[in-house]
Amino acid sequence: MQASELILNPDGSVYHLHLLPEQIAETIITVGDPERVEQVSKRFDRVDFKVAKREFVTHTGWLGGQRLTVLSTGIGTDNIDIVFNELDALVNIDLNRREVREKLTSLNIIRIGTSGALRPELEVDSFLASSGAIGLEGLLHYYERSVTEQDEQYLEQLTLLLCQSKKDFPLRPYYAGAAEELVEKFTLNGAMHRGITLTAAGFYAPQGRELRLKSRFDHATLDQLIAHQGPNGRHITNLEMETAGIYGMAELLGHRAVSLNALLANRATGNFSKQPGKTVDKLIDFALEKLTEK
Q: Is 90 exposed, middle or buried, given 0-12, 13-18 or 19+ CB atoms closer than 10 A?
């Protein structure tokens, strides 16, 4: 791999994350906000590594006999593209020889993030695990990827819905699924909701919000998508900015991923959490308990 493709820092660390292979665990928690990294790692029994570069902050340590890494990605699937390629390089590429390793490692990646509910029955301050995600931002179209016949049919239906609303709307969705064993781990006995997540390219117009600029992705378009049933009869439940990229990149690279969402807003009812910090703290505690249970 040429230096222009696999870019390393002078100390041998990967370019953006500034990490060395020994500085990450095989179970990685991702958060968007760099300040949330310490919210998670302060619960560890000990922290062995702290690395920060740009919006990417990484802490690796131990909790309950398990080695864990928590890493901030920043917002959006453009950052997910960077994070997943560089995490994979750390475990599956010999950085000295610039060659793919013969034996590949599969990481467990758990997103602890925030999201807005799209259905009125989903309470603000509740939790949801994404069984799958629909990408409305285009990252996966840059990678060669096979799609099942079922998913292809579903995506054609979604594209028709979008085109009926806006005939020249330049949006081609994709679908990616979670690691089902991880979804089961966090939703066992109804511990949290399950649903299909929409991943948007931004926070305002791409999610139908309007301040001074009019959104082409209007509420009528969103309502049509919400009303449509997803794979296995599941409805679209929530909207955020990373999950589809996480699931697609994990699938392509051979890792396992699940996205856990604290529902801080409900777009159907217009409500927003009165205690967002406390809700995120509860989700962190819940996720860590599940990750370290015997």
A: buried
Percent of the chain with pLDDT over 90: 79
Q: Is the pLDDT of residue 100 over 60?
A: yes
Cβ–Cβ < 8 Å for 176, 132: yes
CA dist 208 and 276 (Å) reads 22
- Domains contained in the chain, number: 2
Q: Are residues 198 and 218 in the same domain?
A: yes
Residue of 31, 104, 102, 101 lying closest to 70 (CA atoms): 31
Whole-structure pTM value:
0.95
Q: Are residues 138 and 186 in the same domain?
A: yes
71 plus 129 within the same structural domain: no
Decide which of 105, 138, 154 is a domain's last residue. 105
Which amino acid appears at position 122 of this protein?
L
Q: Could you report the per-residue pLDDT of 149-163, keeping only the tens digit for each?
A: 888 888 888 887 777
